[in-house]
Amino acid sequence: MTRTVPMRQWLLGGLLLSLVCISSARAEDHGPSPQELLRRMDAAFVNLSYDGVFSYFSGEDLASLRVVHKVIDGIRRERLVHLNGAPREIVRHGDKVSCIVMPGDDLLAVEKSIPAGPFARAFVRQFDRINDSYMVDNSGEGRVAGRLARRIAVSPKDSHRYGYRLWLDRENSLLLRSELVDHNGEKLEIFMFNQVRFGDDVQPAALETMQVEGSMVSHLTLKSVPLNALSPQAGEPPAGQWRTRWLPPGFAMASDDRRHKPASGEHVTSLMYSDGLAAFSLFIEPMPRRGAARMVSQNGATVAMTHAVESAKGYYLVTLVGEIPLDTAQAIIETVYLKEI
Amino acid sequence: MDDEADAFELRRVLDEAKVDEALREQWHRLHMVRDVLRDEAASYHPELRDRVWAALNTPDEGDAETAELVLAEASGKAGGARSPWLGRITGAAVAATVAAVVVFTGGSFDDAGEAPALVDNTPADLTPVMHQQVQPEDLQRVDGLMLHHFQNQAINSPGVQSFVKLATFRNAPVLPPARPQAGPTPPPAAEGDSPAP
Questions:
Q1: CATH number, domain with residue A82
Q2: In this complex, do B142 and A125 lie within 8 Å of one another by their Cβ atoms?
């Protein structure tokens, strides 16, 4: 015996089905949430093959660079080439990074003066934390390097950090353009692809470095070791004793390291803090015998400033470097102190 | 004026301008021209240089801060946001390095007492500004620590942007002159030949 469905139930079912379809269509229209897009953006950096030329503006400098990225046999390969000025390349092979420069490059001289050794794994970028400090919103669509892009606005909730405007490729979520802006909307840094290609169009040969006679190589290595692995030497206060009495909300320590300057042999404590997006480092060293002026410098979004701290163990020079507003940097550095134990 | 001078050069020019009337006038004219070109002539104060110089050379901590106030006052922003004057004038001190702005700040260090290391190693002729004078060692140290920060950030980030700061760090805009190429020497120019433009 067949039971017929009343017309009223048919209509109700049809209405519900229509509502579900409309709702799904609207969700599809809106696309993924901005937080999800940020996660896809990071994944795109790691997983996609891309080869492009982009412009980078910071402060008063404008540069053109080429980037090639490809995963070969499960290992990330990346090559970044500065297209202006002195030949300079940065090549990443897994967790190892090499800088290839010409003799006489200022980078070599500067690098000799900085603490040597591998870098500890620091959790600087953590998108799951940024909701405490930023509002993340979709802000429409745009077009960059001839490709359609989704726009995301990352707006700070207070004045202790900068904001970001991001353009993500609509197809694969690669970051095509970003702007770092201050509270007045002034652009401090701009990164923008001029042209880019993906997938099989990226040839492995494009990862080969330049073969310039006389070029020199310096290496950076990322180490996956516990923080505070370096034991303090006799007479040196351990890194963990350095503290700040104040930090902007949302910032937490991302790495804590101690090493020696290759030239002087003096120890430097470096503490890196992050709010999930922005980061700054504090470097603490015994007061140098020469050159200890209090200074503040700013280029684009990067601020650097020094401050002297007097403790029972002597005078120390604290240097803050980071992508945070000047006033915030000043407020932080003035609260650095050596915790007595 | 074009933000290409370093701290010592700026100070030397200021020093010479104090005794050299012609240089002082030239300084004045060049800045007027620059300001007119930038449509900022109204903000120029001829006495500003002397006041800044006096403030920079004053060992008193409060007067060091006065340097900032003088500059801020010149732009009508005393007590407010950073002065555009401050950015340009003080920026000249380190324009050759990565920094675009340098200001000299007051702090608790001198308030807490003298630092023998600083005093003992400061050249005698710079004694009045020993705590405010940026030395080459300062610039080198800050450059190195900036590089360290960029490296640490870059190597822990998935994207190319962080490495961009490393790749562009103090990259010289001008290449050194190319070495002479081996090969036949070009014949000397004949009389009457005009030089290449």
A1: 2.50.20.10
A2: no
Please state, in angstroms and rounded to a whole number, the distance separating the CA atoms of residues B97 and B74.
Answer: 26
Final residue before a domain boundary, out of A190, A205, A220: A220
Residue type, B54: A
Domain of A321, in residue numbers: 227-338
Residue B145 is nearest to which of A220, A283, A290, comparing CB atoms?
Answer: A283
Q: Is residue A122 part of a domain?
A: yes
Domain segments of chain B as ranges: 7-111
Q: In sequence order, what DSSP letters do the residues of B144-155 get, joined into one string?
A: HHHHHHHHHHHH
With CB atoms and an 8 Å threshold, state whether B134 touches A295: yes
**Residues 6 or more apart in contact with residue B36 via CB below 8 angstroms:** none
CATH number at A279 reads 3.30.200.100
- Indicate whether this model's pTM tops 0.80: no
Interface confidence, given as ipTM, is 0.82
Tell whether A289 lies on the interface with B, counting CB pairs under 8 A.
Answer: yes
- A122–B135 CB contact, under 8 Å: no
Task: Give the separation between CA B90 and CA B7, rounded to whole angstroms.
Answer: 9
Interface mutation vs chain B, best among A91, A167, A295, A338, most B CBs within 10 Å: A295
Q: What is the pLDDT of residues B39-70, one digit of tens each?
A: 443 333 444 444 444 444 444 444 444 444 43
